[in-house]
Amino acid sequence: MRRMWGANIYITHFHQHHHHFSFTSHGYVLIYNNATSSFLHQASEAGVLGEAEWLLLLLEEGSQEALEAQVSTLDAFIDSELMFVTQHNCSAHIKSVYRVGPKQREARVEVVGTWSKEGGFTPSPLAKLDRRKDFKGYPMTGVGVKVFDFFTTYLSSGGVSGFVGDIVTTLQRTHNFTMRYEVLEGYAYGKLESGSNTRWTGMVGALQEGRADLTVSELSIIQERSEVISYTQPLYIVSRRLFVATHVDFSKKLLAYASPMDTLLYITIFGNMVGLAFILYFIERLSLHFIPIKKEADSWSLVSWYMTSAFLQQGCSTCPSYMASRIIFWVGFIVSLIVFTSYSATLVSHLAVERPATLPFSTLQQLSRQTGWDAGVNNNDLFQVTATQTCAGSVSEECRVLQEVWNRIIMRSPDNIVDSYRQGIQKVLKEKYVFIGVDVTTNYYIRELSPEDGCRVKELPGRYLTGGVAIGLQQKSPFRSIFDSSIQRMREAGLMSKLIKEWLSADRSCTLDTEISASITDVAIIFFLLMGGATVSCILLTAEIMMSWMKKHGIKPEAHPLTITGRPAWDKHTRKNQGIVAAFTQLQHVFRKSETINTQERLYENKY
Hints:
By secondary structure, the chain is α/β, with parallel strands linked by helices. Helix content is 44%, strand content 17%.
């Protein structure tokens, strides 16, 4: 005692008639007697027995048996540091006493170390958690939900598997405890009971009420739950993300055959072919004047047909007669060949690579302002709990966005809240619907889809409600530290990485190895062109029949120069109309005179 005083260790003498003590220290050295026994009981009732280190000096005969008997009524569980010292000859033996948990009354004694004047303190070769890792068949009760098989799978033998299930099974084997569990119905992770700010439902409620010691399913770590339960260290980090399908843009499908080249290139090609037609028309006229090998020059309509045939790579029934004209024709043919080759190659890439419609949003905040899109979550998901309960009364920006999405978008229709992830993904594929789900969980179910449907579902880049999932424990659970130590060793040994790869691997690859088949939307423009061409053909046929009937019956339409729908054009500007009419009449006279001269020259040549 004199040495402790010299080391500035505070020593208090407790009197037996004291009924209340204050607990302000993290370590106590006590002489075990009736007064200190009462002190231990009060520390246990106050819940601080496991939060401080205790060293009891046993000076009286039979004190160890009395202490072991008292421990059976104290909360000196597996995480406590209740040590005592017994003296034997010139050495002291330091031991600890504890119970595994509240369900076991038997006190267990272990050697911490020995002390001697010559050798000093010699600790036990095993650390505290290693000494106490064997629970000796301690009975534990678990609680779980049957929602995601890859997290927890319930075996017919009574065991559990899956990512969390395998971790719980490993802990059970490592620490030698027995376990029975209860499986709750539905998405019963836990939320506040209606009208209460303290009582929880689901797995959280089972831990809060002491009906379970641990969860055998994953439980998200959130601040509100931490006030009534505790967790192991995080097993995996998850986030909520936006999942949406890339729907086919039908308007782009209709324009797919025009998309391989830009507008300027189309204009350039058309202008090039028209220019070649003008050159061909000019050469034909000029060649006929100097080298009259045929009766008359090709008309503009025939020249246009030449260039159209060259452009369509179809040839023509009649070809230009002069060598210079043929060169122009073949130049047009070669130009169109190059254009067709480039167009075909680019068209194939445009038809093979799906170009999804552009989304009007990319973040949760932008989604909250949409009117043409719906969004939803799984029933009782953490998103729902946070938006309706956790964020109630909060002024943070994150809570504001969550509440806006919940009130404006999700609550717009009761069908937006789905009963399973599979149902949510199907709504994404069929409707303009955004599913807000856990990244690893949603990707797990997306992998069950066909390659075509799976590649259509995309996850947007934002992450929301990011946090860990862990094994839930009772508040101030005595097993937390030893479970955390074992989980950390699993992580360091690579077992956690192996389990993640086996159960939570959510990698999805969308490659072009899958077979691509054309759908009706890919070639819809062809049918529109066919119907459009047939319609124009019927209109022209009707016009021809009417003209033929009018000609047969001697009916001539009333002619008027430069008329539009039977009335003079620009009738408000009569003088200008007369001037234009006179100009066209003069040009017509010149062309007729030229054709008369050409005709006379041909007759003269044929005569002589």
